[in-house]
Design goal:
Strand order of the largest sheet: 5-4-1-13-14-17
Strand content: 15-25%
Order of helices and strands: HEEEHEHEHEHEEHEEEHEHEHEEEEH
Radius of gyration: 18 Å
Helix content: 25-40%
Number of domains: 2
Number of strands: 17
Shape: globular
Structural class: alpha/beta
Length: 270
């Protein structure tokens, strides 16, 4: 990243609830990204959803008409892998109670993802195949002394027609069964803050649908928060979601398309 690039503001967009709900795109958001790029703003995609490998995330963005490179995408799996790589031996076995995105991220930093004990650490993240046997394995390894990493603590993820239990719900089960609280890697925890600063610089704005994670990430970075109401947040908190904070963030819109003109006016080039 050149000094000139780093000086330009970056718009760090969440994905679930901002660009899409499950497999359904949020149509106005696609045009919103194009408007931000046309105004000279850098775009990055910072997601707490750890379930998909980065190439799959890039491919999904491309299918929806949003051009992105792998370097523009960070997930909570990336943050969890970086956090562990800094503190455990290279090649260490890490029990994955998560999706394939976590396996990919761990392998890329020289760790060994496994699905059976023994392991030096356990990483818990969102995945739809979570069951009792997996809860038993993960919690047992933590009780035996392994590090316990949660990719994030988001209780839910938005999908068409409602919400799904999120990574935080799975991590809560492992925490209850193990008697241990996890270290958190994704938004808004320190490992994600460090990655965003290293990758994208020191000037930007965070766009997201969840004040407790996206808004808290913005606060940790010292950046403004732009809240969209296309995900889990509303004027009145929906079941499993959140309410618009009081006072409200500096930027609020029904979706990214509605937010884009506000962000261009505040951060775009003349």
């Amino acid at each position: 990243m050149t000094a000139d690039t780093a000086a330009r503001p970056v718009v760090c967009c969440d994905l679930d609830g901002v660009l899409w709900r499950g497999d359904d795109p949020i149509p106005a958001a696609i045009g919103g990204v194009a408007a931000l790029r046309a105004a000279g703003l850098r775009i990055a995609f910072v997601s707490n959803n750890s379930s998909h490998p980065i190439p799959d995330v890039v491919a999904k963005l491309t299918r929806l008409g949003v051009q992105a490179s792998p370097d523009e995408v960070i997930t909570s799996a990336t943050a969890a892998a970086a956090h562990l790589a800094a503190s455990v031996a290279r090649g260490a076995r890490v029990l994955v109670c998560a999706g394939v995105g976590v396996e990919e991220a761990l392998a890329q930093v020289g760790l060994t993802p496994v699905r059976e004990p023994p392991a030096a650490a356990v990483v818990v993240g969102f995945h739809r195949s979570f069951d009792f046997d997996e809860l038993d394995r993960a919690s047992r390894v933590v009780r035996e002394g392994a590090r316990f990493i949660a990719t994030n603590l988001d209780a839910t993820y938005p999908v068409p027609g409602g919400m799904l239990p999120g990574s935080g719900s799975i991590a809560a089960a492992v925490a209850t069964a193990s008697g241990c609280s996890p270290e958190v890697a994704g938004k808004p925890a320190a490992p994600m803050v460090t990655l965003v600063r290293q990758r994208f610089g020191t000037t930007g704005v965070v766009v997201g649908d969840r004040p407790s994670s996206d808004g808290a990430l913005a606060a940790a970075l010292g950046w403004p928060f732009a809240l969209v109401l296309s995900g889990v947040t509303g004027p009145v908190a929906p079941p499993g979601g959140e309410a618009v904070p009081d006072p409200a963030p500096p930027f609020v819109g029904t979706d990214l398309g509605a937010l884009a003109p506000q962000l261009v006016a505040a951060f775009g080039r003349a």
